[in-house]
């Protein structure tokens, strides 16, 4: 109020007789200045400070704090909303998956098999991998383990095998591939020890004893077929059944999943092939 003290020393202060306001001023001030100052004071609203990006004033800092707080308070609410939607979507997805599992057909059960092995000598890393039906027949108690399978689907089929089920012994990778005889599953799947043997041709360094990858079963020789049934004969029948869209061999895995060393057979497929031993070659 330094200016007021200066005015009071020059002359007595008087109320303005022109505008009637409560503003008081000294006679030494020009009349126009008095009128403008009085009008602004009486009729115009005070200017407001607009908070800029730097926000240096205390009031602006308070406003920023409040606004920031409001934003922070609103974030969890939005997040909760999104989270709720995600949970709802996940629940719906789980429900659909459960529903589809209930509606999907069960995995087919097989009771007969076809298992391939090589009856002619072939060396891998200096080891002969030959194992034909005669080799199985020559083993003690005519029983041996079916090891060395390194295909996941073939392995899974072996895991499905049950004791007393029958399998065709199929000679593969030889001059005349085909079905030589019948064997029986006498021990269900267990850990294939050759996967841990570094000297074995079927060694698998990625398989660990506490989490083995590969399994095997024990099989027992049952009998030779009355005649050897060659692949060429089976293929002719398969093509006939396939073109006619009827017949037990039209979908036989020997032709639809030819690379598998262990294959499932339906009862009709097994019985049809077995009956061929009593018939003349086609």
Fold and architecture overview:
By secondary structure, this protein is an alpha+beta fold. It folds into three domains: about 40 residues, no CATH class; about 40 residues; about 170 residues, ph1033 like domains (ph1033 like fold, Roll). About 40% of the residues lie in helices and about 20% in strands. The chain has eight helices and ten strands. It has a six-stranded mixed sheet. A two-stranded antiparallel sheet has the order 1-2. Strands 4-5 form a two-stranded antiparallel sheet. The longest helix is centred in the N-terminal third of the chain and has 46 residues. The chain is globular and about 65 Å long.
- Classified by CATH, the class of the largest domain is Alpha Beta
CATH structural fold name of the largest domain:
ph1033 like fold
How much of the residues is beta strand, in percent?
15-25%
* CATH level-two architecture of the largest domain: Roll
**What is the H/E order?**
HEEHHEEEHEHEEEHHEH
Structural class: alpha+beta
CATH homolog superfamily of the largest domain:
ph1033 like domains
Runs with pLDDT <50, length 5+?
Answer: 2-11, 23-28, 46-78
Q: What value does the Rg take, in angstroms?
A: 47 Å
- Count of strand segments: 10
Q: Helical stretch count?
A: 8
**Gross geometry:** globular
| Helix-residue proportion | 25-40%
Number of domains: 3
Overall pLDDT: 79
Largest sheet strand order: 6-9-8-7-3-10
How far apart, in Å, are the first and last alpha carbons? Answer: 126 Å
Largest sheet: 6 strands, mixed
């Amino acid at each position: 109020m330094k200016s007021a003290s200066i005015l009071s020393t020059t002359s007595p202060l008087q109320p303005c007789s022109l505008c009637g306001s409560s503003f008081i001023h000294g006679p030494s001030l020009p009349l126009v200045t008095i009128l403008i100052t009085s009008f602004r004071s009486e009729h115009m609203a005070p200017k407001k400070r607009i908070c800029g990006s730097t926000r240096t004033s205390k009031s602006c800092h308070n406003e920023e704090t409040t606004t920031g707080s409001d934003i922070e308070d609103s974030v969890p609410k939005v997040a909760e909303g999104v989270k709720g939607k995600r949970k709802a979507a996940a629940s719906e997805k789980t429900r659909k998956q459960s529903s589809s599992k209930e509606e999907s057909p069960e995995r087919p059960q097989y009771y007969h098999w076809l298992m391939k092995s090589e009856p002619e000598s072939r060396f891998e890393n200096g080891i002969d991998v030959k194992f034909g039906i005669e080799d199985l027949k020559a083993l003690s108690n005519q029983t041996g383990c079916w090891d060395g399978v390194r295909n996941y689907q073939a392995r899974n089929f072996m895991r499905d095998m049950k004791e007393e089920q029958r399998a065709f012994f199929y000679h593969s990778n030889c001059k005349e591939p085909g079905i030589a005889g019948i064997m029986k599953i006498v021990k269900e799947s267990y850990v294939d020890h050759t996967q841990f043997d570094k000297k074995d041709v079927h060694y698998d360094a990625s398989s660990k004893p506490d989490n083995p990858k590969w399994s095997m079963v024990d099989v027992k020789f049952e009998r030779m077929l009355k005649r050897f049934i060659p692949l060429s004969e089976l293929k002719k029948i398969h093509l006939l059944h396939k073109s006619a869209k009827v017949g037990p061999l039209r979908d036989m895995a020997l032709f639809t999943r030819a690379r598998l060393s262990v294959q499932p057979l339906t009862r009709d497929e097994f019985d049809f092939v077995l009956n061929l031993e009593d018939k003349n070659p086609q």
